[in-house]
Amino acid sequence: MIEIRELSPSKANLKKFTQFQIDLYRDNPYYVPPLISDDVATLSPDVNPAFDFCEAAYFMAYRDGKPVGRIAAILNNQVNEHHSSNDVRFGFVDFIDDPEVSAALFNAVEEWGRKKGKDRIIGPLGFTDLDHEGMLVEGFEELSTMATIYNYPYYVDHIQRLGYEKDSDWMEFLMEVPDGIPEKYNRIAEIVKKKFGLRVLKFNSRKKIKAQYGKALFHLINDAYDGLYQYSHLSDRQIDYYIDIYLGLLDLDLVTLIVDKDDNLVGVGISMPSMSRALQKSRGRMLPLGWWHLLKGLKGKNDRVDLLLVAVKPEFQNKGANALLFQDLIPHYIRKGYRYAESNPEMETNGKVQSQWEYFNTRQHRRRRSFRKQL
């Protein structure tokens, strides 16, 4: 007998909700846990500014008093209004390999959505695009990243058995870092600089980049990603929130801004050393020694770099502006000893983004999917 409990969003309950996933994947060598404190903050209405326009409910499944699954129901009212849709999202979903458990979890979200007057369910999605999204459908034997979902292969069978169909796919790529800047990238970058008056801007102070371009960076993300699948525009409160979270962590060598002749921001590329192994060792906790593993991940020897973000203003997309980013970043990758660069998920239909990898030795190593079902 499966019991479904709706959890109040107390800190203790949200820790329990997050810990279930970490326990489920305890012996999996490819899974990368989140920091529990980060997920608790994301799920908390008192902390996450996305709750200015989102609602959520959290459900856990129990058998004989033992947790066997979890799922979140999310309403993003901003996206529904922007796309004239009427969707409820599911996300943060994990369960043991038992069809009775998965059916009970998804039924809880579906019923919650119906009570809210929604007519379709989609996911896995978070509150915004800065949360994890997309169920892994290929690449189960690839080490995951801190920015993506890892799930067991059986999840796909369960969700399809429940009547869910493909809504959209994301692809991920693993690139070999070249020995030098590809000649064509260099040539394109120099042409773009002269034609459009663009230049690369670097900082050696987090305080300065935050003051001069912190807000502009996230406004650029809104412009560049507008129109992409289920994109949720970042509000001013969210931008302030994410500036404080992210800018303090970055290696500024791996942050490249492109500006025009008037110093207006037109492009940004942000990379970060892979934190996958460090997060595995931390088991999702800063204490007692999690902080040490994370510090080593940030500052120590690492052969892989994550391409967290590439964004270019729409009017400069497909005009070679991204060549300036990699003309600057590749020498830093080489100097720091990175052998591989890993992309974030990219929509399978987003040829503009995927075309920038054509000059590298590249392997598409993961695919993830969002699903839909009429209620």
Describe the structure.
The mean pLDDT is 91. This protein has 375 residues and is an alpha+beta fold. It is 36% helix and 27% strand. Helix 7 (206-225) crosses helix 8. The protein is built from twelve helices and 14 strands. Strands 1, 2, 3, 4, 5, 6, 7, 8, 9, 10, 11, 12, 13 and 14 form a 14-stranded mixed β-sheet that branches. The protein has helices spanning 11-24, 36-43, 77-83, 99-115, 154-161, 183-196, 206-225, 236-246, 276-282, 290-299, 321-335, 351-354; strands at residues 3-7, 54-63, 66-76, 87-95, 120-123, 135-138, 165-176, 199-201, 255-259, 265-273, 304-312, 340-343, 346-347, 362-374.
In short:
By secondary structure, this protein is of the alpha+beta class. The chain is about 35% helix and about 25% strand.
Secondary-structure blueprint:
Blueprint: E1 3-7, H1 11-24, H2 36-43, E2 54-63, E3 66-76, H3 77-83, E4 87-95, H4 99-115, E5 120-123, E6 135-138, H5 154-161, E7 165-176, H6 183-196, E8 199-201, H7 206-225, H8 236-246, E9 255-259, E10 265-273, H9 276-282, H10 290-299, E11 304-312, H11 321-335, E12 340-343, E13 346-347, H12 351-354, E14 362-374
Parallel strand pairs: 4-5, 11-12
Antiparallel strand pairs: 1-2, 2-3, 3-4, 5-14, 6-14, 7-12, 7-13, 7-14, 8-9, 9-10, 10-11
Average pLDDT: 91
Helix segment tally: 12
SSE order in H/E notation?
EHHEEHEHEEHEHEHHEEHHEHEEHE
CA-CA gap between termini? 25 Å
Number of β-strand runs: 14
What characterizes the major β-sheet? 14 strands, mixed
Overall geometry comes to: globular
